[in-house]
Amino acid sequence: MFDSSIYKSRRNQLKQKMKSGLLLFLGNEEVGMNYKDNVYHFRQDSHFLYYFGLDYPGMAAIMDLDKDQTIIFGEEYTMDHVIWMGNRLSLEELGALAGVESVKLDNELSNILKNANSKKQTIHFLPPYRKVNQFKISEYLNIPYKQVPEKASEEFIKAIVAQREIKSAEEIAEMEKALDTTHRMQTTVMRKTRVGMTEAVMAGKAEGIAVSAGGNLAYPVILTKNGEILHNHYHGNTFQNGQLVLGDFGAETARHYAGDITRTFPVDQQFTQQQKEIYEIVLKAEMEAISSLRPGIAYRDVHLEASRIIARGLTELGLMKGDPEEAVAQGAHALFFPHGLGHQIGLDVHDMEDLGEKYVGYGEQFTRSEQFGLRALRLAKELKPGFVLTVEPGIYFIRALIEQWEAEGKFLDFINYDALKNYRHFGGIRIEDNVLVTNSGFKILGKPIPKSVGEVEGMRQAL
Ligand code: GLY
Ligand code: MN
User: 343, 336, 290, 341: which is closest to 313 by C-alpha?
Assistant: First the structure.
């Protein structure tokens, strides 16, 4: 946890913004994998962590702004808990760590909320992403279960997004720590991958480094020879000569801040000519996109410029044709780059995505496009100092998609389908870094991880 003064000041800031009503924060519960007591790794809710910092299951809190009262709810450990799990601080001691004086047993939350509801006090709650919290809200506030998400408080959501998207110095320091561990994960995998190993061996090494640093993974490891499958979590293939390895993985610190880095490298000591040509285009798109970051620029425009760099590069190689600007305007390049350029990152790898990308990524000024490719863009809005975001362009050869578009005769003026026949087994390349928007521009967070062709090949050739 941070010092209690940090949680107090975060809550004060929220209080200034929200002014009245009752704010409800539900922490997370343990979840059984195959029976109740054999649980998944516990992950606390990020909003609860941000405002209260307490990393234990079964907790909740309210901020009653009308009564100017904050209460934390939880359980006291019994002797049974102590026997099976060891001792833990009392609720009062836990409250003190979060800077909250008033603590109550968890079973009192329901009555307090039912009482507030009966007095028509406005109760602000967030859209639940776990069914058990959706059920609790339905029960406590007497809202039909299915209507709970749509009844979430837009005012509460907007206040939290506005606060959490500006990272403070202590948060940036945590993200640097996450990236320090992620640096070790990425460089270990880049150095140690060999022909004949399975993807699982390297995925296990990456996960082991994250866990041994005292935290965990920020999201399930993507480590694959089939980089064209964007969120590929299958690790059963064996690496062979001529293949590419795409590794998209990052650590989460003990305080739960995330890193999210992607590198792509050859199984051999050098890229093939064909791999190098595609790699250089992705690298150019990534580096130029990063260089353009500054307060006030709309990330949608950065995404579109990265798309144009990709389209120009592929046109030079003969895989696309016609005017690259027009190809991007019509969405033809999305055959190769079907996802967005990046997203905000913080306590969550896709920061606050539970609150809705409409608020986190688009705000009032932007609406999501319906065009294939552009519609997958998670962050479009204007950047502010203190934002931390990912920049992650890629080029992929997705056989099923290429075959479908060719069969439909799609974008025949822009795509050279014949030339693509030589890329059937290529896979995909993505390069990703995490970047802080500063007052004057940007800062790439974390120690540099080999990225240029020379640096990557240098690491593949090192013993
Ligand atoms: N690291 C996976 C993603 O950003 O979706
Ligand atoms: Mn990412």
Answer: 336
pLDDT per position as a tens digit, 182-200: 999 999 999 999 999 999 9
Best residue among 185, 217, 219 to mutate for probing ligand 1's pocket (most ligand atoms within 8 Å of CB) is: 219
For 307-338, what is each residue's pLDDT tens digit? 999 999 999 999 999 999 999 999 999 999 99
Give the end of a domain, one of 102, 137, 164: 164
pTM of the model: 0.97
Residues sharing a CB contact under 8 Å with residue 387, sequence separation 6 or more, in sequence order: 165, 166, 167, 344, 436, 437
- Inter-residue contact 210 to 183 (CB < 8 Å): no
Taking the C-alpha atoms of residue 354 and residue 157, their distance in angstroms, rounded to an integer, is: 10
Q: What is the pLDDT of residues 330-383, one digit of tens each?
A: 999 999 999 999 999 999 999 999 999 999 999 999 999 999 999 999 999 999
Residues 134 and 202 in one domain: no
Is residue 274 a contact partner of residue 252, using CB atoms and an 8 Å limit? no
CATH number of the domain encompassing residue 83 = 3.40.350.10
Residues having CB within 6 Å of any atom of ligand 1: 219, 248, 260, 349
What three-state secondary structure class fits 114?
helix
The token duo for 132 is: 């058990």
Q: Please give all residues whose CB falls under 5 A of ion ligand 2, grouped by chain where several chains appear.
A: 260, 390
